[in-house]
Amino acid sequence: MASLKNDTFLRALQRQPTPYTPVWIMRQAGRYLPEYNATRKRAGSFLGLAKNPNYATEVTLQPLARFPLDAAILFSDILTVPDAMGLGLYFAEGEGPKFERPLRDEAAIKKLTVPDVGTTLRYVTDAVSQIRRALDGTVPLIGFSGSPYTLACYMIEGGGSADFRRIKTMLYERPDLLHHILDITAQSVIAYLNAQIQAGVQAVMIFDTWGGSLSAAAYQEFSLAYLKRIIAGLTREHDGSRVPSIVFTKGGGLWLEDIAAIGCDAVGLDWTCDIGAARARIGATVALQGNLDPITLFAQPAAIRAQVGQVLASYGHGSGHVFNLGHGVSQFTNPDHVAALVDAVHDLSHAYHTPT
Ligand code: CP3
Q: Are 288 and 252 in contact (CB under 8 A)?
């Protein structure tokens, strides 16, 4: 960490003083950037991009060349893990991600094993090493994974779903089978994140995109318990620095105390929570990341600046806030509006930090 030129993101995650509030954006490397679409065209497909470390490095750096962001995030996808487990990930044009071999029967579920991440996901760790070299100590690199429950949603449904009928039916009818899937997946996620840390990521984030679709009791048993296991299994220090962890359950606002208690360093918030109220609840024990409504970016820059000002004011004075959207940036966003967001955060946040 000593060699990092900008460590505000890592400091904020550990609730240490910073001169301003650091900012990065979920899905910052993606289809709203014309240069991303150009590289994707050269690669032939999304998976062609993600599985080639040269392309993955190129697109990881694209948003940083445009905006003074305080962190880079590895370009990859959460579904690389089930792909490595043999489910066969593919993208049908306009339909999002799909699996050739979703988990539909007990025999397939019982055959599931933890993949050897060193070989099956070597393209990810190679990308991490290459991105770290390319970043050359400018800003830290974030690694990530899906949560076991969120990965299981795609593994069982076979793709996206409006009501998660298959996985929830299994949850109520055959909880033993779902626990088996979650157990193997949690072991895989631990191995995968630790391999990313070994290769050089300086913080990790777990995306629990669909945990918020569960009932309160089911969330505890089928999502949070596995998140806790993952946090307990992570390498806490690498190269003499702490590797902070961020847990983001979309729709998890009702359960913030429980999420903050699993041992993570920071909790991601979607835009439905008031960040000041969240700070009053859990801000003494963890940092908070978020939480501007991504659709704010469709408004004009003056309105974006006003909304950024509201999130900063709601969090209030002091460290422990990493500015972000409450979910990924939409592909239809104007990149100039992202520039307005980043500038507003940097500009307006000085007032909430004591000069050191
Ligand atoms: O944040 C970043 O810039 C890092 C890259 C990243 C991607 N996906 C790239 C991507 C990350 C962190 C993800 C996580 C991810 N992937 C999640 C969890 C976060 C969330 O958004 O809730 C989920 C649920 C997925 C699964 C997934 N991958 C979906 C649903 C899609 C289709 C999205 C769509 O709008 O069609 C993907 C594909 C994907 N992953 C794209 C990108 C940039 C778009 C693919 C393309 O270029 O065609």
A: no
